Amino acid sequence: MDETISLKIIVEKIEVQNPLHAKKLKENIRTLDSNYQHWAKSFLQKTEKFLKKTNVSLDDCITFYLKKVNDSIFEMVNFFQTGKYRYNSFDEVNKRVYSDPDVMRYNMLSLLLSQVLWKQHYIIFDFFKKHISEYVESKSYLEIGGGHGLFINEAAKLFNTSCNFELLDISETSIEIAKSFIDKKNITYYHMDIFEFSSKRLFDFISMGEVLEHVEKPKDLLKKVKSLLKPEGVFFITVPTNAPDIDHIYLFNNSEEIRTLLKESGFKIDYEIEVSTEKISVDDAHKRKICVIYAAFLSF
């Protein structure tokens, strides 16, 4: 990889293969502030090191990303036609996605670029960074469904050095990618289903980014999270509405459904944000079945 990765280079390479999508990316990037530009530069420097470490070229990563874009369109067409997600069984998506290293590798590497190219991902991460500094005295941190480990990596920069960090994911491929991406070395990793996880300690802070839609019974998952959290602990969660994907099972039609489920599960909303993935209001997105990302910091 001879060239230094930049937003400009990535968008130019995408434009060669998908001019329409590149146009949308340019429009979205223009709406973001200077803080985004600074963060994107730092994130891409880290991404470049990660790709070199894992022997993946930028071109391969872009190929995965564009496949993800096309797959998302395919799933969205089916969603508009049927009003539901294609899959409703965890066993099915586990076999098709989480247990298949090739599919997970494609999925994780494509999402790596989406983190910096999709405005909703940046806005949600910026929301996390804005409030995470309030919890720096936490002594124990658990990330469920860690993905690349973006959230836990940010927390590890700020939290007390004595804080114990643990990350759990059902995909071994995801864990291996997180190990290469996360800066902090003394993190304990668990390759297992969250419902099989037990701990002698309760956690001060738990994060779970875009996991709730991957299970058949989200209320059971929230109950499990609550059982792992200290009474005074904090839970950060992100959940998409109307977001068909290759491994999404549970459909949330709007943010209010998520709020209701959280409150019924015993959580109190301390901070929250909603971000439409398109250039329309959140209310219009819900009405038109367009994806909105909901995120919140929760307590008991």
Polypeptide structure, described:
There is one protein chain. This protein is an alpha/beta fold and 300 residues long. 51% of the residues lie in helices and 18% in strands. The protein has helices spanning 7-17, 19-30, 34-53, 58-82, 90-98, 101-117, 119-132, 150-158, 172-181, 218-228, 255-264, 282-287, and strands at residues 140-144, 164-169, 187-191, 203-209, 229-241, 268-276, 292-299. It has a seven-stranded mixed β-sheet, with helices on both faces. Helix 10 (218-228) links the parallel strand 4 and strand 5. Helix 1 packs across helix 4 (58-82). The chain is globular and about 50 Å long.
List the helices and strands and how they pair.
Blueprint: H1 7-17, H2 19-30, H3 34-53, H4 58-82, H5 90-98, H6 101-117, H7 119-132, E1 140-144, H8 150-158, E2 164-169, H9 172-181, E3 187-191, E4 203-209, H10 218-228, E5 229-241, H11 255-264, E6 268-276, H12 282-287, E7 292-299
Parallel strand pairs: 1-2, 1-4, 2-3, 4-5
Antiparallel strand pairs: 5-7, 6-7
Helix pairs in contact: 1-2, 1-4, 4-6, 6-7, 6-9, 7-8
Shape: globular
Order of helices and strands: HHHHHHHEHEHEEHEHEHE
Fraction in helix: 40-55%
Query: Which percent range describes the beta-strand content?
Result: 15-25%
User: Would you identify the regions where 5 or more consecutive residues have pLDDT less than 50?
Assistant: none
